[in-house]
Write a structure and sequence with these properties.
Elements: E1 32-34, H1 43-58, E2 60-64, H2 70-84, H3 88-91, E3 105-107, E4 122-128, H4 141-145, H5 147-171, H6 178-181, E5 192-198, H7 203-208, E6 212-217, E7 223-227, E8 234-237, E9 243-245, E10 253-257, H8 259-264, E11 274-277, E12 288-295, H9 309-313, H10 319-323, H11 332-344, E13 359-362, E14 365-368
Parallel strand pairs: 1-2
Antiparallel strand pairs: 2-10, 3-4, 4-5, 5-12, 6-11, 7-10, 7-12, 8-9, 8-11, 13-14
Helix pairs in contact: 1-5
The protein binds 2-oxoglutaric acid and fe (ii) ion.
Protein name: Fe2OG dioxygenase domain-containing protein
Domain Fe2OG dioxygenase: 189-297
Organism: Tetrapyrgos nigripes
Length: 372
């Protein structure tokens, strides 16, 4: 008699998408890029024109037409929601060891915000790639149970990242695969999907922490893909140094460049400052679930500027840069791990102890540590 095969998957706890805010906020005028044009004749050229200005001046833009369906996104959000509802002991079974800069695994909110008695309100789970290099990385049972859905989604996100790297290489007049080769999915890298949950806060707590949920920062890697979020809270710093809100675009992906891409382009591509603040009044009671992909260069990729004719023409690359040898360079892995350790270790968020002009530095790589 054939045996009955039980589906080993736990039931998911569906994520109910909150209604967008009705508040009229000072929205960032982000360019909307329709990635479905990519494979059409002349499509890449058109996208390059649209992206050119955004990557240099805003460092943020929004993608639509990514080919990822709303159903796929919602399913991942529901898996994420199910994960965060697990008992704490279960979530603690695979923790990120930030003391060595390893951000893979679960992080619970234990740190105090600045010098207050209010703790952070964000839990995160960072899921590494599904390639042989990461077979032995510990994963939660729940994540393993949904591996047949998370693994293809993980790789699918990289295919979006891949298209962006081709467009950016064209902008830089580099061979089209220059950046793709430095961000291969099948090479070891610190890429991950992040599930993150911000728990709603009381008005009095928000007041104590000056409404700041996640302090101003630049991302550590190359590109960040953030599934557009109905709960308004993300703000970016405009070219005029003003905080602007990021608007919800259903099914869209908010993209931004980070430090390693800025290093590879000597600052031509902007690693943009952003932060998370308390949502407007009509969303104040909502938990905020997020889904992000962080793309980082291959672990051994040297952090030296690309030999881009644009960077040379515009004076970004000097004779000194051209003399820099890859074997003497800081690798992407060294930079990213050092930054994770620096930012996430400790009992309080860093803004408490440092002056706003503090820099974080690994050898010759320097970024501003945080932004008020
Ligand atoms: O939650 C968000 O909207 C942004 C989070 C973020 O900036 C980060 O995790 O680096
Ligand atoms: Fe960020």
């Amino acid at each position: 008699m054939p045996s009955v095969v039980n589906d080993p998957k736990p039931q998911v706890d569906p994520w109910i998408k909150p209604a967008p805010t009705n508040a009229s906020l000072d929205w960032a005028p982000l360019q909307i890029i329709d990635l479905s044009k990519y494979d059409l004749p002349g499509g890449k050229e058109e996208l390059v024109k649209e992206l050119q200005d955004s990557v240099r001046h805003w460092g943020f833009w929004t993608i639509v037409g990514s080919g990822i369906s709303q159903e796929q996104i919602d399913r991942q959000l529901s898996i994420a929601n199910t994960f965060f509802k697990l008992p704490l002991e279960e979530k603690r079974k695979v923790r990120a060891d930030v003391s060595v800069g390893n951000n893979f695994g679960y992080r619970e909110p234990t740190r105090f915000v600045k010098n207050t008695d209010v703790k952070e309100n964000m839990e995160t789970l960072n899921v590494p790639k599904y390639t042989p290099d990461y077979n032995s990385v510990p994963r939660h049972d729940l994540i393993k149970a949904f591996e047949d859905e998370i693994a293809p989604f993980h790789r699918l996100l990289w295919t979006v990242v891949r298209k962006l790297f081709v467009l950016l290489a064209i902008i830089l007049e580099l061979p089209e695969d220059y950046l793709v080769e430095r961000h291969q999915y099948d090479e070891p890298s610190e890429d991950h999907i992040r599930f993150l949950m911000y728990h709603a806060r009381s008005a009095s707590e928000n007041k104590k922490i000056g409404d700041q949920w996640l302090g101003g920062h630049t991302d550590f890697g190359s590109l960040t893909l953030l599934f557009s979020q109905p709960v308004a809270a993300l703000q970016i710093r405009s070219p005029d140094n003003e905080w602007k809100w990021v608007k919800y675009i259903p099914g869209g992906i908010t993209c931004n460049a980070g430090d390693t891409l800025s290093f590879l382009t000597k600052g031509y591509i902007k690693s943009t400052i952003h932060r998370v603040v308390s949502p407007p009044a009509d969303q104040a009671n909502l938990d905020r679930l997020g889904l992000i992909y962080f793309s980082r260069p291959g672990n051994s990729v040297p952090m030296i500027p690309a030999p881009s004719p644009v960077l040379i023409k515009e004076g970004y690359i000097t004779g000194e840069d051209e003399k820099q040898l890859p074997e003497d360079a800081v690798t992407a892995f060294e930079y990213v791990r050092a930054r994770v350790k620096h930012v996430l270790e400790g009992k309080a968020t860093r803004d408490a102890q440092r002056s706003p002009d503090a820099v974080f530095q690994v050898s010759y790589l320097k970024v501003q540590d945080y932004y008020v």
